[in-house]
Amino acid sequence: MIKAIKFSLFMICLLLVWEGLVWLLKVDPYTLPAPSAIAKSFVVDFPEYFPHLLPTIQLVLLGLFCSIICGVLFAVILNLIPVLNDYIYPLLIMSQNIPVIVIAPLLVIWFGFGLLPKLIVITLICFFPITVSLLEGFHETDKDLKKYMQMMGASRMELFTKLEWPNSMPFFFNGLKIAGTYSVMGAIISEWLGSDKGLGKFMILAQRAFQVDQVFVAIVWIIIFALIIYIVIEAIKRFVLRWNHE
Asked: Which residues form a coiled coil (predicted)?
C-alpha cells in the first residue's frame, strides 16, 4: 500500500513537471501535448475510440490463451522428452530473435488479413516466457522427493502430475505475468498489419490526422489493459498457490 502511494505521488510529480515544461517551453501540441490535453481527449473523444476498445480486448484475451496453450505444450514436451531439448529449444530461441515487424507482412501474405496472422503474432511474442518459466519450474523440482517417489514405484506421468507440475506453478505464473503484459503490445502490433477496429487501428488513424493527443490516449489504454491483466494474473496466482499449498 505504501509503495503504491509513493508510486502515485511520483507519477503525479512527473505529470506536473511534464505539464509545466510544455507550458514554459510552449511546445507545439502536434509535437508533444500536455497531460491536461491528453486527459481532455481521454474524456471528450471517448465516443470516437470506444468502438476500438472491445476488439483489442478480445484479441488480447484470445492471443494470450493461444500463447498459454503453446507455451505449456512446448514446456511439457521438452520436460517429458528431454532428448528433444537439443533440437526444439534452439528453434524456440531463434523464434524470439526474428523481428515481428519483419515477419508480420509475410504472415499476411500467407494467411490473409483475418484473425489467424494476428494470433500468430501475439503467440510468437508471448509464449516464450511461459515455456522458459515452466521448464525452470520442472528442473527446480526437489531431487530427494523425486528419488523417493521413484523408489515407491511412481511412473513418469505420476512424477510429472503429482510433483513436477505442482512445483512449477509459481514459475508458470511468473512467466504468465510477463506474457500477459506483452500480449497487449502484441495485439497492437497485429492490428497494425491491417484491421478495421482496435487501438492499433485507432493509433494509425490518429497519427495520420496528426492527433498526437489521441495517440497518447491509446497508449494510456494500452497501459491500463496491461495493468489489469497483471493484477488479474497475480490474484489468480495467489488463489491457486494457496489452494495448492493447502
From this structure: none
Q: Diameter of the chain by CA atoms?
A: 76
Domain total of the chain: 2
- Residue 13's domain comprises 1-32
What pTM did the predictor assign?
0.87
Task: Look at residue 156 and tell me if it is in a domain.
Answer: yes
Q: Are residues 73 and 95 in the same domain?
A: yes
Instruction: For residue 186, give the C-alpha cell.
Output: 502484441
* Full DSSP string of 22-87: HHHHT--TTT---HHHHHHHHHHTHHHHHHHHHHHHHHHHHHHHHHHHHHHHHHHHHHH-GGGHHH
**pLDDT 10s digits, 58-91:** 999 999 999 999 999 999 999 888 888 888 888 8
